[in-house]
């Protein structure tokens, strides 16, 4: 059984390498179009975040922020309330550090050493960028005078730290599972819950009254940029570091 667990990622990486070779053999116009589309999307996201940050810096909250929160908080279905609280729980300390540490150790023990290092980088980088932007913008959080606030937090509001951490760390885990495992029920059982977690954490933060919708939107925009940066660094370092790890060797070894 242990031998099968080791061989599967190696075979999968070989498949990924073959796909990369086929992608490189595509006509140059197709590759240029995809690169242009990707770069254009990144520029659009960066500009959207810049505009939103400027507006947020000069406005405590928007009328649409208030309307979205009040509309969401009309839902009083007990299981829904429990779900919203449960989704945010892993993002608070100390459980966030414990869960992150356990996942990173598990990845390392499985032989994915470079992946474990980059998972740690993803957690630290997304959190660090979030704290930096929060200190620069210094937007106050929603107050109980405007919406129902489950628990008052003392930190700044824009952008949402939960959303950026989930998108940066769990988004990178989603990327690893998607690229290192072949399509299977096992892969789907990991991808679907993690994807739902990333999508719904924004709703949770608004519902609990701890962030405005614009805080969440800004976090998804900035978090997407940080995740792209993390993935690019991961791919850059893949053929350079930990090339002798027991599983998932550098793709260049297989090409």
Structure at a glance:
With 255 residues, the chain is an all-alpha fold. The chain has helices at residues 2-24, 28-58, 63-72, 78-88, 95-109, 113-137, 161-180, 185-207, 213-237, 251-254.
Summarize the structure in words.
The protein is mainly α and 255 residues long. The protein has one domain (2-254). It has helices at residues 2-24, 28-58, 63-72, 78-88, 95-109, 113-137, 161-180, 185-207, 213-237, 251-254. α4 packs across α8 (185-207). The longest helix has 31 residues, at 28-58. The radius of gyration is 20 Å and the shape is globular. The two termini are 27 Å apart.
Write the layout of secondary structure elements.
Blueprint: H1 2-24, H2 28-58, H3 63-72, H4 78-88, H5 95-109, H6 113-137, H7 161-180, H8 185-207, H9 213-237, H10 251-254
Largest sheet: none
Strand-and-helix sequence, N→C? HHHHHHHHHH
Number of domains: 1
Outline, from the CA principal axes?
A: globular
Helix count, DSSP H or I runs of 4 or more residues: 10
Radius of gyration: 20 Å
Could you tell me the number of beta strands? 0
The structure class reads mainly alpha
Task: Output the keywords.
255 residues; mainly alpha; 0% strand; globular; disordered N terminus
